[in-house]
Design a protein that fits this description.
Layout: E1 10-12, E2 23-29, E3 32-37, E4 45-49, H1 50-62
Antiparallel strand pairs: 1-2, 2-3, 3-4
Length: 63
């Protein structure tokens, strides 16, 4: 499914490195979370269901 990302509000982690090598996340998309490379903002975007993204983040926090 193609999602409209024209109103996505992208943000980087507060823990991202000073050289900007990180990902950006947009979580203001209804039912989805979009992820992109901060060095290639016009490049490909991965989208995940909101529930799948939450499980992924919870897994990361638990390890």
């Amino acid at each position: 499914m193609t999602r409209d990302l024209s109103h996505a509000k992208w943000r980087k982690s507060s823990r991202s490195s000073a050289n900007g090598q990180c990902v950006e996340v947009a979580d203001n998309i209804p039912g989805a979370v979009a992820v992109r490379d901060s060095k290639d903002r016009s490049g490909p975007v991965l989208t995940f269901g909101a529930q799948d993204w939450r499980r992924f983040i919870d897994f990361l926090k638990s390890n």
